[in-house]
């Protein structure tokens, strides 16, 4: 399958290691910046009775995103059992700390290795996931924007750009013209059929009916993550509202994603802390809540993905070379 994709498990492993190391550095930096002693005391005083609610909403968020993944596979007529689908999806979570989450193409790689599903056929699901996640978080931020007096212009521009991408994907004549233009580039010309196949999948995944369902699922899934942040803030003794949690989590996540840094590390944390400070949360509470939120919504998924991948390493036949 080397002609179809040059992706290797080793290259993905390298990206993952870089993300993990950067994550440790960012977490240590935040702790030092915010005074380890004060944050330590805040953690000791954390309301751990909120832990069940936090864990429940984090898990519901991941399950919602799995439901969207399954919706996309059904649309592309990729027929695999839900257990195999879950193994692939949750294994892909370990790549959330790669730049722009592009490492999540691991899911397409695993489909190729285990089920012989064409890489270019399934890879657009990753783009569709990111696009619907972006639209969902922009909608959540819009719904919560009434509690703050800034960010509205950024939200509107983001929504317009997202809808513009959808329109380009659905405007076949324009999309084909763009593809033909790209084929004039020597390096792209050799892969022209691959890009056309990927576009066909992207076209199916961006149709209005499916887009509406996917965005709705994304809103519910990411709302669960926002509610988890709300309970984390309560655990740190703040009086933040659910709207504040929605606004902070959504815009912080968007900023991290747009940075294209591994997992948005540094940018997402800094944005969330800054937004919490602007909403009247003290620095210790803001830093502690951000670290807890990122552990639940990022690192929990990464470690869950690593565990799933390692437990299914032989099943995925990852030690074998691609033909």
UniProtKB/TrEMBL annotation:
Membrane-topology descriptor: Multi-pass membrane protein
Chain segments annotated as transmembrane: 16-34, 46-63, 154-171, 210-233, 239-261, 298-316
Keyword Transferase: yes
EC identifiers of the protein: 2.3.2.3
Pfam families per record: LPG_synthase_TM
Reactions that this protein is recorded to catalyse: L-lysyl-tRNA(Lys) + a 1,2-diacyl-sn-glycero-3-phospho-(1'-sn-glycerol) = a 1,2-diacyl-sn-glycero-3-phospho-1'-(3'-O-L-lysyl)-sn-glycerol + tRNA(Lys)
Annotated InterPro entries: L-PG_synthase/AglD
Protein name: Phosphatidylglycerol lysyltransferase
Native source organism of the sequence: Sporomusa ovata
């Amino acid at each position: 399958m080397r002609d179809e994709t040059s992706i290797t498990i080793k290259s993905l492993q390298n990206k993952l290691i870089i993300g993990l190391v950067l994550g440790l550095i960012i977490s240590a930096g935040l702790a030092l910046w915010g005074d380890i002693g004060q944050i330590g005391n805040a953690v000791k005083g954390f309301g751990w009775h909120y832990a069940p609610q936090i864990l429940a909403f984090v898990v519901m968020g991941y399950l919602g995103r799995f439901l969207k993944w399954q919706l996309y596979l059904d649309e592309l007529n990729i027929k695999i059992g839900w257990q195999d689908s879950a193994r692939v999806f949750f294994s892909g979570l370990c790549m959330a700390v790669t730049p722009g989450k592009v490492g999540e193409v691991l899911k397409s790689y695993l489909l190729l290795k285990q089920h012989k599903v064409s890489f270019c056929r399934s890879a657009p699901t990753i783009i569709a996931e990111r696009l619907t996640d972006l639209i969902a978080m922009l909608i959540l931020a819009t719904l919560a924007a009434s509690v703050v007096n800034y960010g509205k212009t950024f939200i509107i521009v983001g929504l317009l750009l997202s809808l513009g991408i959808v329109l380009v994907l659905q405007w076949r004549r324009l999309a084909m013209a763009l593809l033909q233009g790209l084929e004039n580039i020597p390096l792209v010309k050799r892969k022209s059929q691959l890009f056309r196949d990927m576009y066909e999948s992207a076209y199916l995944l961006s149709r209005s009916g499916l887009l509406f369902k996917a965005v709705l699922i994304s809103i519910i899934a990411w709302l669960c993550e926002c509610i988890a942040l709300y309970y984390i803030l309560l655990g740190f003794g703040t009086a933040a509202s659910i709207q504040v949690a929605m606004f902070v989590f959504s815009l912080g996540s968007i900023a991290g994603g747009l940075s294209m840094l591994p997992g948005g590390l540094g940018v997402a944390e800094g944005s969330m802390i800054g937004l919490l400070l602007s909403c009247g949360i003290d620095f210790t509470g803001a830093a502690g809540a951000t670290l807890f939120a990122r552990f639940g919504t990022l690192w929990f998924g990464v470690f869950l993905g690593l565990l799933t991948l390692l437990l299914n390493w032989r099943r995925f036949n990852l030690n074998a070379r691609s033909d």
